[in-house]
């Protein structure tokens, strides 16, 4: 199983302390050696860092640890692969743009029958059940908004990232 780290704060905060512990469990003190990633939301944008190397050996993870990026919303993931090979495209979190906003997804667990799931106009980049689940969740949302974009204009705030 993978591990997740999330943060939601009222004011931009760095997560260097918590992230440092997660990094060590990514192949150092834990079995999650099959890649890692982290997404920081900043205004309407997001910064995503991912690496298929174990996080405890990753120079990119070291950079993130040493550079205190401040954010109100952060999603981090260390991977213990069960579906899909160890590769950058299979490393979480997954991020997609939809309706001018960035959406991020990370998952812990396994889905049965995921290869037959229909994801509409979204196509996975990698081979994981997690990315397929993300696209599956996004597909009906995209169809509903596309069909009725005008009438959702006043309600869109409910569906988008609360800080962007």
UniProtKB/TrEMBL annotation:
UniProt keyword list: Glutamine amidotransferase, Transferase
Keyword Methyltransferase: no
A molecular function GO annotation: transferase activity
Superkingdom of the organism of origin: Bacteria
Coiled coil regions in record: none
Matching Pfam families: GATase_4
Domain Glutamine amidotransferase type-2 intervals: 2-164
PROSITE patterns: GATASE_TYPE_2
Name assigned to this protein: Glutamine amidotransferase class II
Taxonomic path: Bacteria, Pseudomonadati, Pseudomonadota, Gammaproteobacteria, Enterobacterales
